[in-house]
Amino acid sequence: MKTSGKALAQKVERIEASEVFSIRSDELPTWCPGCGYFGIHFGINNAIQQLALLHHQVVVVSGIGCAGRYPFFSHTYGLHTVHGRALPVATGVKLANPELTVLAVGGDGDGLGIGGGHFPHAARRDININYILFDNAIYGLTKGQPSPSTPVGFKTKASPQGTREQPLNATLLALSYGASFVARLFAGDPEGITRALTAGIRHEGFSFYHVYTTCVTFDKQNRTWDHLKKSVHALPENHDRTDRGRAIEHVLRDNDSLGIIYQESR
């Protein structure tokens, strides 16, 4: 159903009244037009606004890649670190000042490739930080090579005959590593991102958000907007988010359901 002009105008008024744009810096995002990162950006900003977090008490830590630019676009404190090292730096920030809300952001190449060794240890230590993985299943900044989450058979200039390696499932990894809060989300649903982040930031422990997103420049066949919109769907209403074993079983059966997959009772 198409949104009417009046309804769209009313939505814009509500967004402006929420002051969500006050969390954006004066630097305009430099992501490609149509990139899913804009939706993630809005979802994160809206969560900060809804939780009434003071901007100077929020720190965004990033690595390298398209997601690595994120701190420049946020009116909070930020650290643009080296490739794959967002999690250990974010851990250090939280340990140095536990009063801060710490968000680590990065792409699938950054977090599951060169930074993949830090993921299990951040999860098992259960330090109270939030890790948001922007997963477009490709290396976007370095021109479209396969990443650790690229599906088998995907053809790029770096894999002209199609990729042969099985992709990593970041949601399943987080559950296996012992993360105490795990959500799977979609860049085309910023409201869902906001809901998960508000719950995860309130959660005392390591919170992981696996966000399916697009690379409109280098992926015309896999994680496109059309394909993602057709495949993703909400978790079943009877899903028990407090049972890790059931959560793992569900993810093994269904790789496209969205929502809070697991939250450890505290």
Structural overview:
This protein has one domain (30-263): 3-Layer(aba) Sandwich (Rossmann fold). Helix content is 34%, strand content 16%. It has helices at residues 5-17, 37-50, 86-96, 108-114, 119-125, 170-177, 190-202, 225-231, 244-253; strands at 58-62, 77-80, 101-107, 130-135, 181-186, 207-212, 233-234, 257-263. The protein is globular. With 266 residues, it is α/β, with parallel strands linked by helices. It has an eight-stranded mixed beta sheet, with helices on both faces.
Which secondary-structure class do the elements indicate?
Answer: alpha/beta
Estimate the helix proportion, in percent: 25-40%
CATH-assigned homologous superfamily: Thiamin diphosphate (ThDP)-binding fold, Pyr/PP domains
Contiguous low-pLDDT stretches (5 residues minimum) are: none
Helix/strand order:
HHEEHEHHEHEHEHEHE
Radius of gyration: 18 Å
Strand content: 15-25%
What is the highest CATH level, the class? Alpha Beta
Counted up, domains total 1
Q: Order of strands across the widest beta sheet?
A: 2-1-3-4-6-5-8-7
Shape: globular
Could you tell me the CATH topology label.
Rossmann fold
Distance between the termini: 41 Å
What's the CATH architecture name? 3-Layer(aba) Sandwich
Largest sheet: 8 strands, mixed
Count of DSSP-assigned helices: 9
Number of strands: 8
Mean pLDDT: 93
